[in-house]
Specification:
Layout: H1 5-22, H2 28-35, H3 39-67, H4 69-88, H5 93-121, H6 124-156, H7 160-163, H8 165-179, H9 193-216, H10 221-243, H11 257-273, H12 277-287, H13 292-318, H14 323-340, H15 353-376, H16 383-419, H17 435-443, H18 453-486
Length: 519
Protein backbone atom coordinates (compact mmCIF):
# COMPACT_ATOMS: atom_id res chain seq x y z
CA UNK A 1 0.00 0.00 0.00
CA UNK A 2 2.85 2.40 0.79
CA UNK A 3 4.00 2.53 -2.80
CA UNK A 4 0.67 4.08 -3.84
CA UNK A 5 0.90 7.08 -1.51
CA UNK A 6 2.58 9.24 -4.21
CA UNK A 7 -0.32 8.42 -6.55
CA UNK A 8 -2.82 9.43 -3.87
CA UNK A 9 -0.97 12.71 -3.27
CA UNK A 10 -1.09 13.64 -6.96
CA UNK A 11 -4.65 12.38 -7.48
CA UNK A 12 -5.97 14.48 -4.59
CA UNK A 13 -4.61 17.68 -6.10
CA UNK A 14 -5.75 16.92 -9.64
CA UNK A 15 -9.22 15.87 -8.46
CA UNK A 16 -9.57 19.09 -6.49
CA UNK A 17 -8.48 21.46 -9.26
CA UNK A 18 -10.57 19.73 -11.95
CA UNK A 19 -13.64 19.51 -9.73
CA UNK A 20 -13.47 23.26 -9.16
CA UNK A 21 -14.03 23.82 -12.88
CA UNK A 22 -17.52 22.31 -12.68
CA UNK A 23 -18.47 22.40 -8.99
CA UNK A 24 -19.34 26.10 -9.26
CA UNK A 25 -21.83 25.60 -12.12
CA UNK A 26 -24.89 24.82 -10.00
CA UNK A 27 -23.90 27.37 -7.33
CA UNK A 28 -23.99 30.34 -9.74
CA UNK A 29 -27.60 31.45 -9.04
CA UNK A 30 -26.98 31.43 -5.27
CA UNK A 31 -23.68 33.27 -5.70
CA UNK A 32 -25.34 35.92 -7.86
CA UNK A 33 -28.17 36.44 -5.37
CA UNK A 34 -25.90 36.55 -2.31
CA UNK A 35 -23.26 38.91 -3.74
CA UNK A 36 -25.47 40.93 -6.08
CA UNK A 37 -23.47 39.89 -9.15
CA UNK A 38 -24.72 40.57 -12.66
CA UNK A 39 -24.36 38.30 -15.69
CA UNK A 40 -20.88 39.57 -16.57
CA UNK A 41 -19.69 38.92 -13.04
CA UNK A 42 -20.99 35.35 -13.01
CA UNK A 43 -19.25 34.71 -16.33
CA UNK A 44 -15.97 35.88 -14.82
CA UNK A 45 -16.39 33.51 -11.86
CA UNK A 46 -16.10 30.70 -14.42
CA UNK A 47 -13.88 32.39 -17.00
CA UNK A 48 -11.34 33.81 -14.55
CA UNK A 49 -10.52 30.29 -13.41
CA UNK A 50 -10.36 28.77 -16.92
CA UNK A 51 -8.32 31.68 -18.30
CA UNK A 52 -5.72 31.56 -15.55
CA UNK A 53 -5.31 27.82 -16.08
CA UNK A 54 -4.87 28.32 -19.82
CA UNK A 55 -2.46 31.21 -19.48
CA UNK A 56 -0.14 29.73 -16.84
CA UNK A 57 0.13 26.02 -17.61
CA UNK A 58 3.06 26.22 -20.04
CA UNK A 59 5.01 28.78 -18.01
CA UNK A 60 4.62 26.93 -14.72
CA UNK A 61 5.63 23.67 -16.37
CA UNK A 62 8.86 25.30 -17.53
CA UNK A 63 9.40 26.83 -14.07
CA UNK A 64 8.95 23.41 -12.46
CA UNK A 65 11.66 21.97 -14.72
CA UNK A 66 14.10 24.55 -13.36
CA UNK A 67 13.27 24.85 -9.64
CA UNK A 68 11.77 21.43 -8.90
CA UNK A 69 8.46 19.79 -9.71
CA UNK A 70 7.58 18.77 -6.17
CA UNK A 71 8.30 22.29 -4.97
CA UNK A 72 6.01 23.83 -7.60
CA UNK A 73 3.30 21.22 -6.98
CA UNK A 74 3.40 21.82 -3.21
CA UNK A 75 3.34 25.59 -3.71
CA UNK A 76 0.35 25.15 -6.01
CA UNK A 77 -1.51 23.20 -3.32
CA UNK A 78 -0.82 25.94 -0.76
CA UNK A 79 -1.90 28.74 -3.10
CA UNK A 80 -5.02 26.80 -4.06
CA UNK A 81 -5.98 26.30 -0.40
CA UNK A 82 -5.47 29.96 0.57
CA UNK A 83 -7.37 31.17 -2.51
CA UNK A 84 -10.21 28.70 -1.78
CA UNK A 85 -10.48 30.24 1.68
CA UNK A 86 -10.61 33.67 0.03
CA UNK A 87 -13.41 32.48 -2.29
CA UNK A 88 -15.37 31.05 0.62
CA UNK A 89 -15.10 34.27 2.63
CA UNK A 90 -15.50 36.71 -0.29
CA UNK A 91 -17.66 39.70 0.75
CA UNK A 92 -18.41 40.77 -2.83
CA UNK A 93 -18.13 39.70 -6.44
CA UNK A 94 -14.83 41.46 -7.13
CA UNK A 95 -13.04 39.65 -4.32
CA UNK A 96 -14.54 36.33 -5.43
CA UNK A 97 -13.34 36.76 -9.02
CA UNK A 98 -9.86 37.79 -7.88
CA UNK A 99 -9.66 34.80 -5.53
CA UNK A 100 -10.80 32.49 -8.34
CA UNK A 101 -7.95 33.71 -10.54
CA UNK A 102 -5.43 33.13 -7.73
CA UNK A 103 -7.01 29.72 -7.10
CA UNK A 104 -6.46 28.78 -10.74
CA UNK A 105 -2.82 29.88 -10.45
CA UNK A 106 -2.33 27.19 -7.83
CA UNK A 107 -4.33 24.75 -9.95
CA UNK A 108 -2.10 25.41 -12.95
CA UNK A 109 1.00 24.66 -10.85
CA UNK A 110 -0.51 21.30 -9.88
CA UNK A 111 -1.80 20.47 -13.36
CA UNK A 112 1.53 21.32 -15.02
CA UNK A 113 3.53 18.96 -12.77
CA UNK A 114 1.18 16.04 -12.00
CA UNK A 115 2.09 13.77 -14.91
CA UNK A 116 5.83 14.38 -14.54
CA UNK A 117 5.67 13.52 -10.83
CA UNK A 118 3.88 10.23 -11.52
CA UNK A 119 6.28 9.45 -14.35
CA UNK A 120 9.20 9.72 -11.95
CA UNK A 121 7.60 7.96 -8.99
CA UNK A 122 6.72 4.72 -10.81
CA UNK A 123 8.24 2.27 -13.26
CA UNK A 124 6.98 -0.51 -15.50
CA UNK A 125 3.58 -1.98 -14.69
CA UNK A 126 3.17 0.30 -11.66
CA UNK A 127 3.51 3.31 -13.94
CA UNK A 128 0.75 2.02 -16.22
CA UNK A 129 -1.50 1.45 -13.21
CA UNK A 130 -0.72 4.93 -11.86
CA UNK A 131 -1.59 6.67 -15.12
CA UNK A 132 -4.74 4.60 -15.45
CA UNK A 133 -5.88 5.64 -11.98
CA UNK A 134 -4.92 9.26 -12.70
CA UNK A 135 -7.08 9.23 -15.84
CA UNK A 136 -10.00 7.70 -13.95
CA UNK A 137 -9.69 10.36 -11.24
CA UNK A 138 -9.78 13.08 -13.89
CA UNK A 139 -12.98 11.60 -15.32
CA UNK A 140 -14.52 11.19 -11.89
CA UNK A 141 -13.84 14.86 -11.11
CA UNK A 142 -15.96 15.94 -14.07
CA UNK A 143 -18.71 13.51 -13.08
CA UNK A 144 -18.92 14.48 -9.41
CA UNK A 145 -18.43 18.26 -9.76
CA UNK A 146 -22.04 19.33 -10.49
CA UNK A 147 -23.51 16.81 -8.03
CA UNK A 148 -21.09 17.73 -5.25
CA UNK A 149 -21.71 21.41 -5.95
CA UNK A 150 -25.46 20.93 -5.79
CA UNK A 151 -25.29 18.91 -2.56
CA UNK A 152 -23.02 21.42 -0.82
CA UNK A 153 -24.91 24.49 -2.07
CA UNK A 154 -28.33 23.16 -1.12
CA UNK A 155 -27.44 21.97 2.40
CA UNK A 156 -24.39 24.01 3.47
CA UNK A 157 -24.55 27.13 1.26
CA UNK A 158 -22.55 28.19 -1.78
CA UNK A 159 -19.47 29.13 0.23
CA UNK A 160 -18.96 25.47 1.13
CA UNK A 161 -18.09 24.57 -2.48
CA UNK A 162 -14.83 26.45 -1.93
CA UNK A 163 -14.19 25.76 1.75
CA UNK A 164 -14.38 22.00 1.20
CA UNK A 165 -11.00 22.27 -0.56
CA UNK A 166 -9.13 23.17 2.63
CA UNK A 167 -8.92 19.74 4.32
CA UNK A 168 -8.21 18.06 0.98
CA UNK A 169 -5.35 20.48 0.24
CA UNK A 170 -3.83 20.02 3.72
CA UNK A 171 -3.87 16.23 3.33
CA UNK A 172 -2.32 16.50 -0.15
CA UNK A 173 0.48 18.78 1.09
CA UNK A 174 1.38 16.37 3.89
CA UNK A 175 1.42 13.38 1.55
CA UNK A 176 3.39 15.26 -1.10
CA UNK A 177 6.13 16.30 1.33
CA UNK A 178 6.44 12.79 2.74
CA UNK A 179 6.14 10.59 -0.33
CA UNK A 180 7.06 12.40 -3.56
CA UNK A 181 10.67 12.87 -4.66
CA UNK A 182 12.08 16.14 -5.86
CA UNK A 183 13.19 16.32 -9.49
CA UNK A 184 14.23 18.92 -11.99
CA UNK A 185 15.60 19.05 -15.50
CA UNK A 186 19.30 20.00 -15.36
CA UNK A 187 19.15 21.08 -19.00
CA UNK A 188 16.11 23.35 -18.57
CA UNK A 189 16.42 26.70 -20.31
CA UNK A 190 15.41 30.18 -19.25
CA UNK A 191 11.65 30.66 -18.98
CA UNK A 192 10.02 32.58 -21.83
CA UNK A 193 8.48 35.30 -19.66
CA UNK A 194 7.70 37.72 -22.53
CA UNK A 195 5.82 34.99 -24.36
CA UNK A 196 3.88 34.01 -21.24
CA UNK A 197 2.94 37.63 -20.53
CA UNK A 198 1.84 38.32 -24.11
CA UNK A 199 -0.31 35.17 -24.23
CA UNK A 200 -1.97 36.03 -20.92
CA UNK A 201 -2.85 39.54 -22.08
CA UNK A 202 -4.14 38.29 -25.45
CA UNK A 203 -6.38 35.63 -23.91
CA UNK A 204 -7.73 37.89 -21.16
CA UNK A 205 -8.52 40.81 -23.44
CA UNK A 206 -10.21 38.49 -25.97
CA UNK A 207 -12.58 37.18 -23.30
CA UNK A 208 -13.19 40.74 -22.03
CA UNK A 209 -14.02 41.78 -25.61
CA UNK A 210 -16.63 39.03 -25.93
CA UNK A 211 -18.20 39.60 -22.52
CA UNK A 212 -18.45 43.37 -22.78
CA UNK A 213 -19.32 43.54 -26.47
CA UNK A 214 -22.94 42.57 -25.99
CA UNK A 215 -23.44 44.87 -23.01
CA UNK A 216 -21.54 48.02 -24.01
CA UNK A 217 -21.89 47.79 -27.79
CA UNK A 218 -19.26 46.66 -30.27
CA UNK A 219 -18.17 50.22 -31.04
CA UNK A 220 -17.85 51.39 -27.42
CA UNK A 221 -14.39 52.64 -26.31
CA UNK A 222 -13.93 49.78 -23.84
CA UNK A 223 -14.68 47.10 -26.44
CA UNK A 224 -12.55 48.74 -29.14
CA UNK A 225 -9.74 49.03 -26.62
CA UNK A 226 -10.03 45.33 -25.76
CA UNK A 227 -9.99 44.45 -29.47
CA UNK A 228 -6.85 46.50 -30.04
CA UNK A 229 -5.15 45.02 -27.00
CA UNK A 230 -6.00 41.49 -28.15
CA UNK A 231 -4.57 42.05 -31.62
CA UNK A 232 -1.41 43.73 -30.33
CA UNK A 233 -0.74 41.12 -27.64
CA UNK A 234 -1.32 38.26 -30.08
CA UNK A 235 1.10 39.84 -32.56
CA UNK A 236 3.71 40.24 -29.82
CA UNK A 237 3.25 36.62 -28.74
CA UNK A 238 3.74 35.30 -32.27
CA UNK A 239 6.80 37.50 -32.79
CA UNK A 240 8.37 36.50 -29.48
CA UNK A 241 7.76 32.80 -30.02
CA UNK A 242 9.24 32.89 -33.52
CA UNK A 243 12.41 34.65 -32.40
CA UNK A 244 12.97 32.99 -29.03
CA UNK A 245 15.63 30.23 -29.00
CA UNK A 246 13.59 28.43 -26.32
CA UNK A 247 9.95 29.43 -26.86
CA UNK A 248 7.10 28.74 -24.51
CA UNK A 249 5.26 27.16 -27.47
CA UNK A 250 7.26 26.21 -30.55
CA UNK A 251 5.17 27.48 -33.45
CA UNK A 252 6.97 25.07 -35.77
CA UNK A 253 4.89 22.29 -34.23
CA UNK A 254 1.87 23.68 -36.08
CA UNK A 255 3.49 22.74 -39.38
CA UNK A 256 2.18 19.27 -38.62
CA UNK A 257 -1.49 19.02 -39.69
CA UNK A 258 -1.97 16.27 -37.11
CA UNK A 259 -0.69 18.42 -34.24
CA UNK A 260 -2.83 21.33 -35.42
CA UNK A 261 -5.85 19.06 -35.68
CA UNK A 262 -5.40 17.72 -32.15
CA UNK A 263 -5.02 21.24 -30.71
CA UNK A 264 -8.12 22.42 -32.60
CA UNK A 265 -10.00 19.37 -31.33
CA UNK A 266 -9.07 20.23 -27.74
CA UNK A 267 -10.24 23.82 -28.21
CA UNK A 268 -13.58 22.91 -29.85
CA UNK A 269 -14.17 19.96 -27.51
CA UNK A 270 -14.16 22.14 -24.39
CA UNK A 271 -16.05 25.01 -26.03
CA UNK A 272 -18.86 22.87 -27.45
CA UNK A 273 -19.30 20.20 -24.77
CA UNK A 274 -19.02 22.12 -21.50
CA UNK A 275 -19.38 25.87 -22.00
CA UNK A 276 -23.19 25.89 -22.15
CA UNK A 277 -23.63 23.98 -18.87
CA UNK A 278 -23.62 27.11 -16.64
CA UNK A 279 -26.52 28.51 -18.68
CA UNK A 280 -28.37 25.21 -18.59
CA UNK A 281 -28.00 25.30 -14.81
CA UNK A 282 -29.47 28.83 -14.72
CA UNK A 283 -32.49 27.63 -16.73
CA UNK A 284 -32.99 24.64 -14.46
CA UNK A 285 -32.86 26.67 -11.25
CA UNK A 286 -34.04 30.18 -12.07
CA UNK A 287 -36.78 29.27 -14.54
CA UNK A 288 -37.87 25.73 -13.66
CA UNK A 289 -37.32 26.23 -9.93
CA UNK A 290 -35.20 23.13 -9.37
CA UNK A 291 -32.80 23.26 -6.43
CA UNK A 292 -29.01 23.08 -6.77
CA UNK A 293 -28.96 19.36 -5.96
CA UNK A 294 -31.64 18.54 -8.53
CA UNK A 295 -29.85 20.68 -11.14
CA UNK A 296 -26.59 18.83 -10.50
CA UNK A 297 -28.31 15.46 -10.86
CA UNK A 298 -29.90 16.61 -14.14
CA UNK A 299 -26.43 17.18 -15.62
CA UNK A 300 -25.11 13.85 -14.32
CA UNK A 301 -26.03 11.64 -17.35
CA UNK A 302 -23.44 13.38 -19.52
CA UNK A 303 -20.64 12.79 -17.03
CA UNK A 304 -21.65 9.19 -16.27
CA UNK A 305 -21.84 8.18 -19.93
CA UNK A 306 -18.51 9.91 -20.67
CA UNK A 307 -16.83 8.15 -17.76
CA UNK A 308 -18.25 4.75 -18.74
CA UNK A 309 -17.20 5.09 -22.40
CA UNK A 310 -13.67 6.21 -21.47
CA UNK A 311 -13.24 3.39 -18.97
CA UNK A 312 -14.76 0.59 -21.06
CA UNK A 313 -13.70 1.55 -24.57
CA UNK A 314 -10.63 3.76 -24.05
CA UNK A 315 -8.10 1.10 -25.11
CA UNK A 316 -10.06 0.15 -28.21
CA UNK A 317 -10.46 3.78 -29.21
CA UNK A 318 -6.70 4.34 -28.86
CA UNK A 319 -5.85 1.82 -31.60
CA UNK A 320 -8.16 3.43 -34.16
CA UNK A 321 -6.97 6.15 -36.57
CA UNK A 322 -7.18 9.39 -34.52
CA UNK A 323 -9.71 10.94 -36.91
CA UNK A 324 -12.29 8.32 -35.89
CA UNK A 325 -12.56 9.03 -32.14
CA UNK A 326 -11.61 12.73 -32.32
CA UNK A 327 -13.57 13.99 -35.32
CA UNK A 328 -16.28 11.38 -34.74
CA UNK A 329 -16.53 12.31 -31.06
CA UNK A 330 -16.93 16.00 -31.92
CA UNK A 331 -19.70 15.11 -34.37
CA UNK A 332 -21.53 13.15 -31.65
CA UNK A 333 -21.10 16.09 -29.25
CA UNK A 334 -22.68 18.33 -31.89
CA UNK A 335 -25.55 15.89 -32.34
CA UNK A 336 -26.09 15.84 -28.57
CA UNK A 337 -26.34 19.62 -28.45
CA UNK A 338 -28.76 19.60 -31.38
CA UNK A 339 -30.93 17.08 -29.56
CA UNK A 340 -31.14 19.45 -26.59
CA UNK A 341 -32.13 22.59 -28.49
CA UNK A 342 -35.83 21.73 -28.75
CA UNK A 343 -36.98 23.65 -25.67
CA UNK A 344 -40.12 25.77 -25.39
CA UNK A 345 -42.23 27.30 -22.64
CA UNK A 346 -43.66 23.92 -21.64
CA UNK A 347 -40.36 22.02 -21.54
CA UNK A 348 -39.16 20.35 -18.35
CA UNK A 349 -35.75 19.11 -17.26
CA UNK A 350 -36.34 15.72 -18.84
CA UNK A 351 -36.09 17.28 -22.31
CA UNK A 352 -32.32 17.61 -21.79
CA UNK A 353 -31.54 14.04 -20.76
CA UNK A 354 -31.25 12.29 -24.18
CA UNK A 355 -29.04 15.05 -25.57
CA UNK A 356 -26.84 15.15 -22.47
CA UNK A 357 -26.33 11.39 -22.63
CA UNK A 358 -25.44 11.57 -26.35
CA UNK A 359 -23.01 14.41 -25.64
CA UNK A 360 -21.44 12.24 -22.94
CA UNK A 361 -20.88 9.52 -25.56
CA UNK A 362 -18.89 11.97 -27.67
CA UNK A 363 -16.95 13.26 -24.68
CA UNK A 364 -16.05 9.70 -23.71
CA UNK A 365 -14.73 9.04 -27.22
CA UNK A 366 -12.59 12.19 -27.42
CA UNK A 367 -11.20 12.40 -23.89
CA UNK A 368 -8.94 9.31 -23.71
CA UNK A 369 -7.45 9.87 -27.18
CA UNK A 370 -6.56 13.57 -27.08
CA UNK A 371 -3.37 13.35 -25.01
CA UNK A 372 -2.03 10.35 -26.91
CA UNK A 373 -2.75 12.11 -30.20
CA UNK A 374 -0.81 15.18 -29.11
CA UNK A 375 2.19 13.11 -28.02
CA UNK A 376 2.21 11.07 -31.24
CA UNK A 377 2.33 14.21 -33.39
CA UNK A 378 5.61 15.58 -31.96
CA UNK A 379 9.16 14.31 -31.36
CA UNK A 380 9.61 12.63 -27.95
CA UNK A 381 11.64 15.52 -26.59
CA UNK A 382 8.68 17.84 -27.20
CA UNK A 383 6.17 15.65 -25.38
CA UNK A 384 5.99 17.93 -22.35
CA UNK A 385 5.37 20.98 -24.52
CA UNK A 386 2.67 19.12 -26.50
CA UNK A 387 0.88 18.03 -23.33
CA UNK A 388 1.01 21.52 -21.87
CA UNK A 389 -0.21 23.03 -25.14
CA UNK A 390 -3.16 20.64 -25.26
CA UNK A 391 -4.24 21.48 -21.70
CA UNK A 392 -3.85 25.17 -22.55
CA UNK A 393 -6.05 24.88 -25.65
CA UNK A 394 -8.68 22.95 -23.71
CA UNK A 395 -8.94 25.57 -20.97
CA UNK A 396 -8.84 28.41 -23.49
CA UNK A 397 -11.68 26.73 -25.40
CA UNK A 398 -13.81 26.65 -22.27
CA UNK A 399 -13.05 30.27 -21.42
CA UNK A 400 -13.87 31.52 -24.91
CA UNK A 401 -16.89 29.21 -25.14
CA UNK A 402 -18.41 30.55 -21.92
CA UNK A 403 -17.96 34.11 -23.19
CA UNK A 404 -19.35 33.47 -26.69
CA UNK A 405 -22.31 31.36 -25.57
CA UNK A 406 -23.08 33.85 -22.81
CA UNK A 407 -23.30 36.54 -25.46
CA UNK A 408 -25.65 34.38 -27.54
CA UNK A 409 -27.85 33.67 -24.50
CA UNK A 410 -28.06 37.33 -23.54
CA UNK A 411 -28.93 38.49 -27.05
CA UNK A 412 -31.52 35.71 -27.36
CA UNK A 413 -33.15 36.77 -24.09
CA UNK A 414 -33.19 40.41 -25.12
CA UNK A 415 -34.75 39.65 -28.52
CA UNK A 416 -37.40 37.35 -27.03
CA UNK A 417 -38.33 39.82 -24.30
CA UNK A 418 -38.50 42.68 -26.77
CA UNK A 419 -40.85 40.60 -28.93
CA UNK A 420 -42.89 39.64 -25.88
CA UNK A 421 -44.57 36.60 -27.45
CA UNK A 422 -44.74 33.19 -25.82
CA UNK A 423 -45.17 31.12 -28.96
CA UNK A 424 -42.41 32.46 -31.18
CA UNK A 425 -44.75 34.74 -33.18
CA UNK A 426 -45.36 38.45 -32.84
CA UNK A 427 -49.18 38.02 -32.93
CA UNK A 428 -49.88 41.49 -31.55
CA UNK A 429 -48.09 40.83 -28.27
CA UNK A 430 -46.20 43.57 -26.50
CA UNK A 431 -42.62 43.27 -25.31
CA UNK A 432 -41.32 44.33 -21.92
CA UNK A 433 -40.48 48.04 -21.52
CA UNK A 434 -36.73 47.53 -20.96
CA UNK A 435 -35.69 44.21 -22.55
CA UNK A 436 -31.95 44.89 -21.98
CA UNK A 437 -32.32 45.29 -18.22
CA UNK A 438 -34.71 42.35 -18.00
CA UNK A 439 -32.36 40.15 -20.03
CA UNK A 440 -29.42 41.02 -17.79
CA UNK A 441 -31.43 40.21 -14.69
CA UNK A 442 -32.72 36.88 -16.01
CA UNK A 443 -29.33 35.78 -17.31
CA UNK A 444 -27.95 36.38 -13.82
CA UNK A 445 -30.70 34.29 -12.24
CA UNK A 446 -32.54 37.27 -10.72
CA UNK A 447 -36.34 37.70 -10.83
CA UNK A 448 -37.89 40.48 -12.94
CA UNK A 449 -41.08 41.99 -11.50
CA UNK A 450 -43.94 42.63 -13.87
CA UNK A 451 -43.12 39.84 -16.35
CA UNK A 452 -45.31 36.76 -16.49
CA UNK A 453 -43.74 33.41 -15.71
CA UNK A 454 -44.95 32.12 -19.06
CA UNK A 455 -43.02 34.83 -20.90
CA UNK A 456 -39.93 34.16 -18.82
CA UNK A 457 -40.10 30.43 -19.60
CA UNK A 458 -40.60 31.07 -23.31
CA UNK A 459 -37.85 33.70 -23.55
CA UNK A 460 -35.27 31.62 -21.67
CA UNK A 461 -36.11 28.46 -23.60
CA UNK A 462 -35.71 30.31 -26.92
CA UNK A 463 -32.41 31.87 -25.82
CA UNK A 464 -31.05 28.56 -24.54
CA UNK A 465 -32.06 26.87 -27.80
CA UNK A 466 -29.98 29.42 -29.71
CA UNK A 467 -27.06 28.87 -27.33
CA UNK A 468 -27.19 25.11 -27.80
CA UNK A 469 -27.48 25.53 -31.57
CA UNK A 470 -24.28 27.59 -31.65
CA UNK A 471 -22.53 24.95 -29.54
CA UNK A 472 -23.76 22.23 -31.91
CA UNK A 473 -22.61 24.05 -35.04
CA UNK A 474 -19.23 24.73 -33.44
CA UNK A 475 -18.77 21.01 -32.75
CA UNK A 476 -19.94 19.91 -36.21
CA UNK A 477 -17.78 22.41 -38.11
CA UNK A 478 -14.86 21.56 -35.83
CA UNK A 479 -15.39 17.85 -36.53
CA UNK A 480 -15.19 18.43 -40.29
CA UNK A 481 -11.99 20.49 -40.06
CA UNK A 482 -10.36 18.08 -37.61
CA UNK A 483 -11.20 15.13 -39.87
CA UNK A 484 -9.43 16.82 -42.80
CA UNK A 485 -6.36 17.71 -40.72
CA UNK A 486 -6.03 14.27 -39.16
CA UNK A 487 -6.09 12.53 -42.52
CA UNK A 488 -2.51 13.71 -43.04
CA UNK A 489 0.41 11.60 -41.90
CA UNK A 490 2.11 12.88 -38.73
CA UNK A 491 4.92 15.27 -39.67
CA UNK A 492 6.29 16.47 -36.34
CA UNK A 493 8.58 19.45 -36.30
CA UNK A 494 12.29 18.77 -36.21
CA UNK A 495 14.02 18.91 -32.85
CA UNK A 496 16.34 21.81 -32.07
CA UNK A 497 19.55 21.91 -34.06
CA UNK A 498 21.69 20.93 -31.08
CA UNK A 499 19.50 17.89 -30.44
CA UNK A 500 18.65 19.07 -26.95
CA UNK A 501 15.11 19.27 -25.66
CA UNK A 502 13.32 22.53 -25.11
CA UNK A 503 12.59 23.87 -21.66
CA UNK A 504 9.29 22.06 -21.77
CA UNK A 505 10.67 18.88 -23.28
CA UNK A 506 11.38 16.99 -20.06
CA UNK A 507 13.60 14.57 -21.97
CA UNK A 508 16.55 14.81 -19.60
CA UNK A 509 15.63 13.90 -16.08
CA UNK A 510 17.41 13.91 -12.77
CA UNK A 511 16.99 10.57 -11.07
CA UNK A 512 14.68 10.90 -8.05
CA UNK A 513 15.91 9.90 -4.65
CA UNK A 514 14.06 8.12 -1.92
CA UNK A 515 10.74 7.38 -3.59
CA UNK A 516 8.39 5.10 -1.77
CA UNK A 517 7.65 3.39 -5.07
CA UNK A 518 11.28 2.19 -5.23
CA UNK A 519 11.57 1.02 -1.62
Amino acid sequence: MRKWWPLIAVSLGVFMLLTDISIVIVALPDIGAALGMDFDGLQWVMDGYALALAALLLGLGALADRVGRRRVYTAGLAVFAVASLGCGLAPNGGVLIAARIVQATGGAAMFATAMALLNLAYRGRDRAVAFGVWGAVSGAAAATGPVAGGLLTEYLGWRSVFLVNLPVAVAAVILTRRTLPESRNPDAHRIDLPGAAAFTVAAGSAVLLLIRGGADGWTSPSVLGAAGTTAAALAVFLLVERRSPHPLLDLALFRSPVFTGVMLCGLVYSAAAFSYLPYTSLWLQSVLGRGPMAAGLTLLPMSLVAFAVSALAGRRLAVLPPAVPLAGGLAVIGAGALLQCTLDASSTWTALLPGLALTGLGVGAVSPVLAAGAMAAVPPERGGMAGGALNTFRQLGQALGIAVLGLVLHQGLRASLADGSTDGSTGGSTGVPDPEAAARALSAGAPVPGISSELVRAAFATALDRTLLVAALTALVGAAVVAVLLRARPTPARPPADGRPSANGRATEERPKGTLAQR
